[in-house]
Amino acid sequence: MKALVYNGPHLKSVEERPKPTLEQPSDAIIKITKTTICGTDLHILKGDVATCKPGTILGHEGIGIVDSIGVGVTSFKVGEKVIISCISACARCDNCRKGMYSHCLNGGWILGNTINGTQAEFVRIPYADTSLYHIPEHVDEEALVMLSDILPTGFECGVLNGKVQVGATVAIIGAGPIGLAALLTAQFYSPSKIIMVDLDDNRLKISEKFGATTTINSSRNDATKLIMSLTGGLGVDTAIEAVGIPATFKLCADIVAAGGTIANIGVHGCKVDLHLEKLWSQNITIKTRLVDTISIPMLLKTVLAKRINPKLLITHHFKLSQIIEAYDTFGSASKTKALKVIIEA
Amino acid sequence: MKALVYNGPHLKSVEERPKPTLEQPSDAIIKITKTTICGTDLHILKGDVATCKPGTILGHEGIGIVDSIGVGVTSFKVGEKVIISCISACARCDNCRKGMYSHCLNGGWILGNTINGTQAEFVRIPYADTSLYHIPEHVDEEALVMLSDILPTGFECGVLNGKVQVGATVAIIGAGPIGLAALLTAQFYSPSKIIMVDLDDNRLKISEKFGATTTINSSRNDATKLIMSLTGGLGVDTAIEAVGIPATFKLCADIVAAGGTIANIGVHGCKVDLHLEKLWSQNITIKTRLVDTISIPMLLKTVLAKRINPKLLITHHFKLSQIIEAYDTFGSASKTKALKVIIEA
Amino acid sequence: MKALVYNGPHLKSVEERPKPTLEQPSDAIIKITKTTICGTDLHILKGDVATCKPGTILGHEGIGIVDSIGVGVTSFKVGEKVIISCISACARCDNCRKGMYSHCLNGGWILGNTINGTQAEFVRIPYADTSLYHIPEHVDEEALVMLSDILPTGFECGVLNGKVQVGATVAIIGAGPIGLAALLTAQFYSPSKIIMVDLDDNRLKISEKFGATTTINSSRNDATKLIMSLTGGLGVDTAIEAVGIPATFKLCADIVAAGGTIANIGVHGCKVDLHLEKLWSQNITIKTRLVDTISIPMLLKTVLAKRINPKLLITHHFKLSQIIEAYDTFGSASKTKALKVIIEA
Amino acid sequence: MKALVYNGPHLKSVEERPKPTLEQPSDAIIKITKTTICGTDLHILKGDVATCKPGTILGHEGIGIVDSIGVGVTSFKVGEKVIISCISACARCDNCRKGMYSHCLNGGWILGNTINGTQAEFVRIPYADTSLYHIPEHVDEEALVMLSDILPTGFECGVLNGKVQVGATVAIIGAGPIGLAALLTAQFYSPSKIIMVDLDDNRLKISEKFGATTTINSSRNDATKLIMSLTGGLGVDTAIEAVGIPATFKLCADIVAAGGTIANIGVHGCKVDLHLEKLWSQNITIKTRLVDTISIPMLLKTVLAKRINPKLLITHHFKLSQIIEAYDTFGSASKTKALKVIIEA
Fold first, then answer.
1. Contact A276/B285, CB-based, under 8 Å?
2. ipTM over cut 0.90
3. Which end of chain C is more exposed for a tag (fewer CB within 10 A), N or C?
């Protein structure tokens, strides 16, 4: 089968690989129909993710059709359509029992990282019963590729962790795909203000279409000053960090109200300063999270009920044979205006 | 009346001052019977608290008797015994409505800071209806001085913010009065392990008496290594920072389990490093808080029910005329083994 | 001044009464600009509310202008526009401290019940600081009359108590004004299905306009059967009782899913059967509540942010001199299709 | 093997049965070392549990040793010691994902009900990975038999559902084994008062030893009056129903404070009256629950930490061959003073 293989820092290629086979009773083999590329895949390609060894097939998102199942799999049958979670959850360890699948002691984020991933014609999914989700009849399947990772991440790490409340004020720092996923899902809770901050006017324009009530280009404006002024000097109830650098974390800490919450989604490469000499008395909460994807069933219901349209995040389409081109497009987002790209296998 | 007055950095004296008078309809004048000294008073005397101007009477803790009340006060009568909260709460601003009295837009921590405090024969208490608490008959009043600040601080900022759970593992870094207050109140929730870390063997010995299941002298031991080993390599569910310096905050971040919580009580004088390059994916929560004292009524019930004995924290007694000596004793705690000192007015 | 006075069961009249005066330091006198009639007023007129004595001016909703304030009032000034809460909250008793204003030990629901109410030119409001809310500039004031009682009741007693969740299934039994208020505010949380049940086709048609995803006329249909079928045999996550009779409570109990919640808003006149022989093992929650109106500030933010349009509930307008006619219209809702009527003073 | 078999209403016998065998990949066969009898077993024997057919081996509690495992079982090995949950949880259905194992769509309470149970030398446990729990070294194993059902039931259905709070007031109606399990586990949260109500003086005496602060024999006293007086006329924060008849539910409703919670543990055989004409405005919560046993790991930690001593509940010991005698003893508890009986296999 065809697969996109990581060959070490800055090296990737489309290769012919053997179709995966069942290894454990809880495994399923899924024939991929659609997959996508994540910012994390770009991190791997830069060599930033030490756990991912050269030779690994990348990709941890996608939808497909059950091709075969292990003897222990009881929730899925061959031929059924499924969403693949980016997180493999054994459902039996202490962390899974708490709903913290991201820290599953037997799985977690392993797809396209420590085991072969979804940017291929087939993929082996461990703990299939609790790492796959049924796709109902008569639903736009393409939208559901967004449920593998990006929507749950925006929702769980940004919106749930940020305790977005009805009538409250939210600032999202970073209007890339993940910030936009937080923007879309924050609206589930009807906040009164959602302020988007980014350096890219195109993304801010998209933010407005997606429901932002205010947008701020921080390259031309003092975001802290503007946000404090918009909130009567009090700051925001929720600040969502969706970039992953010290400057954006600092902005969150500068604008969070007493009693407010900073939800970190960004993947950070270095430490940040935490000004506890000011914040110790501010009754704030800072939360971090690797997505657990426990919200997939709930998000699926909101898609079916048309409370959210995840397709808004999809800007480009490619065939699996064009995946190198897809990477180029996704990797030059400021030029191509790409958000999420769909790759049909 | 006699009062302990802050006269600028490193300067304090017992002075004769006029008895305070009612200024607002919501004021009450309280005749102090017992007060105490807080670590924060020492901070003020170092010149660290810019809001406290020379000439201010210090002190924000104590119990007393209602001497007079403004026309708007309905919950208290002259002659009644009361606990004074260290936080003055108007109960009508947005923050008070949320129970965040510490950030009361009309009060907050003002006693012995921006207005005259409790280390005197009388004190004026603004918003008396919601800043004082009745003392029931037949109760050991001295114990209740601990309800003005230190027990609510240990409980709200450490235990509640730290989400201490039944059966869980807690580490408290710092076994000073505030760490010990967290230790006493953490036991309300029956955690299975409470590990105390300090540099002072005497305080660790006290910790054991107060209910710690393990004590670690971090001057002689690698606390991180020991705690990780005690928790099967997972780390603690709750890490309570009760010192206020970068090293102790770092220790908390090093020992907190995936999914765990760091509760900061310490008053920090400078920024700390937050290693988000590791923590971004660890599903942790960091919480800060200036005590709200909303737990005073509940803590009072636990004292009356003998579920907690706050007198354990009291080591020394002085008369108001000896308050300079009381400051010396409290300020040399490693030598005098002082925890909290009672000053009788 | 003119006022609508309850003169005993089935007796009411517009009378000339003296303008109220300040009695306590915490009082304010409000010049009413707009008020409305509540289903509870009809209950009083039937003689069902023993606490309301003949001679009482009715009404517990409305907006107005501060006419005078007691010396203890600090949050409001003469001439300011205000929303009147139907609940008078002292903010200093144990129940108010918990946010349970409805059970304020010094107030609670007293307006138009044990003291004179708002269906008059002026009204005295006890505990004005915490029983009134500022009206901002440039807002459609009429909509805010809905914040005195009906919207907080639908939201607090129905939606919050019912734990309405994103993606979940909600049934509201009763499409009168209060059921419709629950319908409007349930949408703050983006449930996937909201099923309205009523006997009146007009109200069901309105429900559809207000956002119901399914409507059921239970006079012509087996509501239980239909709802179980709509939910795959599982039942609804939240069942909101908005009528107040045994049959509608039974319907809620019959359709609630294992793990689900029944939120009772209805004012019941007699006991109901609770089938614990079936429900003991169903992991359900039943909640009751007299509105606390703690959500007024939050609801105000959602109105300002146009996340909700309370004017949808207003169907008729009258002058205070026409209030008898207003009662007739409101009391014959099935004929007049009245929801809420506005009375201008 | 020997087993206790239900042969229809009022009929049971010790019979020789074939040792169970693995049927599904997720099964394990457990050699029972200790089991016990539950009040529910008596219900079955009365013919009250229609799902339990004649011929079924009874029992849903116990500890044992893994005898064999299916190919899908990954968390347990042959020879390991285990606690058996009374609830079989597939961990993959929607209800299990929410932690509501009691309503597992593939399991739930099936042991000794719809499939053969634990009152035998061996038992087949479906979904072994998530229905068994490891027993650590050097622990008193007998105490752990109480973790199969009774302690989790008292804790989850009574204490957690009852939202027992630090400093609060709790009444437990019924001092049988399940009420006593609630009493023991309520103390995890340090309530200030725990009032036990029963008709049996012996059980009330035991309650005192177990930590009750007040006991009331309701055959000789007006429990409602006494409890209202003990709580200053306000009622209790938490009322736990641990009997299962209309009179005890009514008592709970009569004594619950405004804002309080009724937690039902009792297995009811008929409907009860719910006086919504009084309770609609009282801001109360009523909760029901079939035990989920999600608290077993946490309870195990509290046993290991000696925060609770479940052996207090054990009054009698028998061999499996004496199980008929054990049933007689357990069934005549008022005479034999039996709480829980241990049966060694």
1. no
2. yes
3. N
